[in-house]
Amino acid sequence: MVNKKEITRRRTFAIVSHPDAGKTTLTEKLLLYGGAIQVAGAVKSNKIKKTATSDWMEIERQRGISVATSVMGFEYNNTKINILDTPGHQDFAEDTFRTLTAVDSAIVVIDAAKGVEPQTEKLVKVCRMRKTPMMVFINKLDREGKDAFELLDEIEQKLQLKVTPLSWPIGMGKGFKGVYNIYYKNLHLFTPGKQTVEAGIRFNNIEDPELETYLGANTGALREEMELVKGVYPQFSKEKYLSGEISPVFFGSALNNFGVKELLDVFIEIAPSPQGRQSNVRFVNPDEGNFTGFVFKIHANMDPNHRDRIAFVRVVSGVFKRNTNYLHVRQNRKLKFASPTAFMAQKKSIVDAAYPGDIVGLHDTGNFKIGDTLTEGEILQFKGIPSFSPELFRYVVNADPLRSKQLAKGIDQLMDEGVAQLFTGKQSGRKIIGTVGALQFEVIQYRLEHEYNAKCRYEPITLFKTAWFVSDNKEQLEDFRARKRSQIALDKEGREVFLADSPFSLQMAQEKYPDLRFYFTSEF
Ligand code: G4P
């Protein structure tokens, strides 16, 4: 058994949002509380800058720098907090989906003026699918925004989350007075431009006449709204939050550091400690004695002279130890790591032991791919690292016949990193690269040239979607394979996918072959 104390005092989570809602600002404020950074702006400078949206080289460079911020660990009130960073750029959405498999909970940041935005919808959908407990932070209350009830309605409808506010805003924009914390039953007054938060003023009863001395004309409205809140929203229940059925909502302003400490305090009190994970053979509990873990992210070193990479491993059970032999299950071989990295306070340092919920960075020269499992000898593979059907496709063609080996190796390794997906036409043998964002095509071309000394060019292909397909009906399966011969490819694992060139052809296939099941994520 692992030291239970080490497990229960850990919180591993991600902050997700649509770009610009305030994820970076909130992360930074949280780190300030943990003393992990001394000055505001430290995380910000690592953020992929907005101006760089069309300059992918700049993005990659910044991604390189941001290795240190991929995982931000810090101690706060005897709790070890691991924040897993997720790239805001939508072309890297798949990175974010995978990172979400390594967390136990999430904080969703929403801009009070913009409400629920598309990227938030996508990310929350992934969390919902995984039943990840979510808290919502409605940000930028210092600006004019939507009405609080309207925002909660929008969250319920667009994000399909059942919400219960644990704090409530008093006014907004220029008239923003502060928030009443329903969970701790105290009032926090907002002073524009003031960064520090004083302890709230306790009001066990919202009817307390003294409230008026602080809120004046706003008192009546707050009382009425609190009455409504009580009538409309379910009472907070930790169990329901932990099972992903209900999401507590907080209001504040990350920029002004307002409402952040309360969010953090409630978070460490109620958020889940590291949870176990389902493997292909059994459920693995965090307090088991033997170490297990899985790779959820691979980060390439941006220095072309060192083609090494960092594989990020989430510890699921047991204790990960330095210089110890572990089984790389897929390759069926033992590996030992002399310099595993822990991420504390934005700095990397060599770690001797890591506990469930922790993330360790392992130096990799090409052994790992996303989803790989490490154990002390048990043969099992963790589930839940799906690939999604890509959205953009191109044929990839060798542009330097003398270096076809390098090209094959380069493509292979980049696909293992999860940069894109490769499909090989069953009949034509042609290679198709599928991505979720246009940037990746340029990234791949550049990296092949600079890291593998290989050249490729792209040719257009008309493709709407790839769908993995299976069936128990052998006849239908064979007929489908025969008739669609030119539209079937193999993914990197050798599984068959249907290359649908239009929504219509996909629909036709589904109608004509009712016994075939088509899947748009690789895990089914
Ligand atoms: P992101 O990581 O989700 O993309 O968002 P980020 O934190 O970078 O915030 C996006 C913009 O919103 C930033 O302004 C940031 O200062 C601002 N912001 C964050 N929280 C608040 C808040 O509580 N109130 C207000 N009024 N603004 C907030 P920017 O001008 O784009 O960047 P910067 O030049 O200020 O760094």
> If you compute it from the alpha carbons, what radius of gyration comes out, rounded to the nearest whole angstrom?
25 Å
Which structural class do the helices and strands define?
alpha+beta
* Count of runs of 4 or more consecutive helical residues: 15
CATH topology title of the largest domain: Rossmann fold
Distance between the first and last residues' Cα: 33 Å
Describe the SSE topology.
Blueprint lengths: L3 H5 L1 E8 L5 H11 L22 H10 L1 H4 E6 L2 E6 L8 H8 L4 E7 L6 H12 L4 E6 L8 H11 L4 E3 L1 E4 L7 E4 L4 E4 L11 E2 L8 H5 L2 H15 L5 H5 L4 E5 L8 H11 L6 E2 L4 E2 L7 E9 L8 E9 L2 E2 L3 E4 L4 E4 L4 E4 L2 E4 L2 E2 L4 E6 L8 E3 L16 E7 L5 H13 L4 E5 L5 E5 L3 H14 L3 E5 L4 E6 L3 H10 L4 E3 L5 E5 L2 H10 L4 E3 L5
Parallel strand pairs: 1-3, 1-4, 4-5, 5-11, 6-11
Antiparallel strand pairs: 2-3, 7-8, 8-9, 9-10, 12-13, 14-15, 14-23, 15-22, 16-21, 17-18, 17-23, 19-20, 24-26, 24-27, 25-26, 25-29, 28-30, 28-31, 29-30
Helix pairs in contact: 12-13
Bound molecules: guanosine-5',3'-tetraphosphate (G4P).
Guanosine-5',3'-tetraphosphate binds next to α2.
Short description:
By secondary structure, this protein is of the alpha+beta class. It is built from 15 helices and 31 strands.
